[in-house]
From TrEMBL:
CDD domains (UniProt xref): Sialidase_non-viral (cd15482)
GO biological process, alphabetically ordered: xyloglucan metabolic process
InterPro entries documented for this protein: WD40/YVTN_repeat-like_dom_sf, Xyloglucanase_GH74
Species whose genome carries this gene: Actinacidiphila rubida
Name under which the protein is recorded: Exo-alpha-sialidase
């Protein structure tokens, strides 16, 4: 069986899991009493590098790195991510750490709150502000979602380093075709359900919760919106609804299979004020035909009433065979599947609120 590292960021530290003798063993908390909203596992290197965006209520946010799978950590003497003085702002949180594809060695993107994108060309040791997005004329009109205004998703093309897609809460999806020199809103077909009926399809301003990229066709994207699940077949230029067959079209997370095209996962939540699993049943939904149909996955998940909410970065897939799927909830439970979601096991429980989950073969 592949050796998978499972990184779980929580409200009070990072926990690292490895499968041993048929079960999971975890170390941690690393960075106790710090909220870990982002983890990146860079497997492009000979030795995988872990990047962690941790947020101390006393010391503020920072990016840590480890080149020995969490046995030791390095924090730069100067902050890796910092806003230039002329922006008149300061870093509140690192929401995303995304190693780019093999076509861009050494490049790592960081999405932050306030809503900005940073780029590193030295494997995440130092970052510079992507001024073209920060200076975009629409940025001052982005609103703050419930979790704050943030660039929370970064998607890069595996073979074309010039194609970069980001999702902003609450600004919508933006695409760059020239390596970040310029950006265009890419929200055609995505509703802003909180606006009046006649204003439901604005050019920008949608509350996009997460975007995932198809494994086989990198121009195919899956989007979980604040009301609505969508697919794009042209890199985000146009979106169509694929919510039919789901018990609810609200949710935060969406993830795609790392090897199989057309396979994606969501964790629906009721759209009412409670925002809990529909009928209080813990269910992951999988599509194997790019959103044409959905199947509820429940074997090994609790049958009792379940109230755990899965946040936007708390579901992921790994690059193992045939394919692992993972999710964590705000009850501090993390569930794992080694067979593409057909069956599940409780990997760990009683953690603090789970904020993000990342997994990779190491």
């Amino acid at each position: 069986m592949d050796d998978v590292l499972l990184a779980v960021g929580t409200q009070k530290g990072l926990f690292l899991g490895r499968r041993r003798d048929g079960g999971w063993g975890f170390t941690g908390p690393h960075f106790p009493m710090q909220a870990v909203y982002s983890v990146g596992i860079d497997t492009r290197r000979a030795v995988p590098r872990l990047l962690v965006g941790a947020d101390s209520s006393h010391w503020g946010p920072s990016v840590f790195r480890s080149d020995d799978l969490g046995d030791s950590w390095h924090e730069p003497a100067r902050p890796a991510v910092t806003f230039p003085e002329d922006t008149g702002t300061s870093l509140e949180r690192v929401w995303q750490l995304h190693p780019a594809g093999p076509a861009a060695p050494g490049v790592v993107y960081a999405g932050t709150q306030p809503g900005a994108l940073f780029r590193s060309e030295d494997d995440g040791e130092t970052f510079g502000l992507v001024r073209s997005l920060w200076d975009h004329p629409q940025r001052p009109q982005w609103e703050a979602g419930f979790g704050g205004q943030a660039v929370h998703t970064v998607v890069t093309h595996p073979s074309d380093p010039d194609l970069v897609t980001v999702a902003v809460s609450t600004g919508g999806v933006y695409r760059s075709k020239d390596g970040g020199a310029s950006w265009e809103p890419s929200n055609s077909g995505v509703q802003a359900t909180f606006l009046p009926e006649e204003q439901r399809y604005p050019e920008f301003g949608q509350c996009v919760h997460k975007v995932a990229q198809d494994a086989v066709d990198p121009d195919r994207l899956y989007l979980q919106n604040h009301g609505g699940v969508y697919r794009s077949d042209d890199g985000g230029a146009k979106w169509t609804s694929i919510a039919a067959g789901l018990p609810a079209d609200f949710g935060f997370a969406v993830a795609s299979h790392k090897h199989r095209g057309g396979v994606a996962y969501v964790f629906p939540l009721s759209a009412d004020a409670f925002r809990m699993p529909p009928d209080y049943r813990c269910r992951v939904y999988r599509t194997e035909d790019a959103g044409g149909t959905w199947t509820a996955l429940s074997r090994g998940l609790p049958d009792d009433p379940s109230y755990g909410v899965v946040l936007r970065d708390a579901m992921c897939t790994d690059d193992a065979a045939p394919g692992g799927v993972y999710f964590g909830n705000r009850n501090g439970e993390v569930y794992a599947s080694a067979d593409q979601g057909d069956s599940w096991e409780l990997a760990v429980a009683h953690l603090p609120d789970v904020l993000c989950v990342r997994a990779a073969v190491v």
